[in-house]
């Protein structure tokens, strides 16, 4: 098992770039002219990868979404395998921006939402008795 396989088993997300042999071999089950297969790695051996496919990209660049069907691809069909990870710095930046937005929203409602206590019957309204 390679280092990529060990990491992908923990994180799961892979992008597999197919060779010419892989395009021909995967054609009957996945469609003709595939360039790349992306999904979650659910198992691997010395001879193949088993994925839950999220999307496939053909040689023209057209993307087709899949609904996590399980597919096994031979390792000999794969030219390159890339692990897909979230960027830690972008994730922290997004989380910080969302936190600031929520705090600003709450603060604006607290500051501008009310100008004082609610008075149900204000004085001087006049009435039936004088």
Helix/strand order, N-terminal first: HEHEEEEH
Question: What share of the residues lie within helices?
Answer: 25-40%
On the 0-100 scale, what is the average pLDDT? Answer: 81
> Any idea of the CATH topology of the domain at 3-83?
SH3 type barrels
Gyration radius from CA atoms, angstroms: 29 Å
Please state the second-level CATH architecture of the domain at 3-83.
Roll
Total number of strands: 5
Structural class: alpha+beta
The largest β sheet comes out as: 5 strands, antiparallel
CATH class of the domain at 3-83: Mainly Beta
**Low-confidence spans: pLDDT under 50, at least 5 residues?**
3-11
Beta-strand percentage?
Answer: 35-45%
Total number of helices: 3
Query: What's the end-to-end separation, in Å?
Result: 95 Å
Question: Any chance you could write out the topology, listing elements then pairs?
Answer:
Elements: H1 3-11, E1 13-18, H2 20-30, E2 34-44, E3 48-58, E4 63-74, E5 78-83, H3 88-112
Antiparallel strand pairs: 1-2, 1-5, 2-3, 3-4
Compact description:
The protein is α+β, with helices and mostly antiparallel strands and 130 residues long. Helix content is 35%, strand content 35%. It is built from three helices and five strands, in the order αβαββββα.
Structure description:
This protein has about 130 residues and is an alpha+beta fold. The protein is built from three helices and five strands, in the order αβαββββα. A five-stranded antiparallel sheet has the order 4-3-2-1-5, covered by helices on one side. A hairpin with a 3-residue loop joins β2 and β3 (about 50-60). The protein is elongated, with a radius of gyration of 29 Å. The termini are far apart.
């Amino acid at each position: 098992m390679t280092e990529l396989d060990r990491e992908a088993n923990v994180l799961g997300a892979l992008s597999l770039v197919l060779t010419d042999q892989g395009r021909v071999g995967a054609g009957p089950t996945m469609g003709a002219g595939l360039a790349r297969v992306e999904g979650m790695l659910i198992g691997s051996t010395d001879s193949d990868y088993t994925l839950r496919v999220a999307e496939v990209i053909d040689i023209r660049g057209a993307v087709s979404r899949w609904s996590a069907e399980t597919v096994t691809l031979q390792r000999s069909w794969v030219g390159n395998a890339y692990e897909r990870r979230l960027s830690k710095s972008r994730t922290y930046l997004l989380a910080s921006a969302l936190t600031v937005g929520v705090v600003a929203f709450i603060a604006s409602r607290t500051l501008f939402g009310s100008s004082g206590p609610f008075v149900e019957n204000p004085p001087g309204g006049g009435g039936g008795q004088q």
